[in-house]
Amino acid sequence: MTTNTIEDAVRRVVEYMHINLGQNLTIDDMARTAMFSKFHFTRIFREVTGTSPGRFLSALRIQEAKRLLVHTALSVADISSQVGYSSVGTFSSRFKACVGLAPSVYRDFGGVQPGFPSTATRITPVAQSLSLRGRIHSAPGDKPESVFVGLFPSRIRQGRPVRWVTLEGSGAFELRDVPTGTWHVLAHSVPYTQQPHSFGSELLLGQSGPLAVHPGALLRPVDILLRQVDALDPPVLLAHFGP
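The structure corresponding to this sequence follows.
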């Protein structure tokens, strides 16, 4: 089986997820759409996207909720139901954990978080004050503007990163006091002229990891190439931050 065949199968499932966000989708439903056994489907989906089918679906639901909150006048309860949640409370808690703001607050601020929380307030064991250095690159023709680089526990850009930095375009970065654990270095760039909540085709993404950090670890510099977003990339869930 070729790589293209596998990717085509996963793309079918991602499209199926988009169409049925409000439905109770099961792994069996997705595996049938991909035309693989349940076990084989789960494995190839994670290999292609970097995360599980369930987490990818959950991320798509939150992404759609972000769009509806900014672009429609639907109530939070209606949006919750439309993206597949039976409980408004569960939806609101999940949204805040992923995006960083409660749904109503996200709507009030127009999809922009006013400033980003200082990582100094996050209590996490530090591996002997290690720093991770790297460089953000972009392909010819791409012009990244505000670049966000964060340290996350998974491939999904959600919640508060344990360490983060912003750059004015491509270039060198440093994440200081890297905590112990296994992390993904995730970067994304959104043009200033683009609506921050839309995160559309102009979004540029890059990643490195997983990176295992422990006391005495040697953290080699990482190079991250930003590329245009693809349907197989897990959505960016954390709110765009403003001044």
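The longest strand covers residues 181-190.
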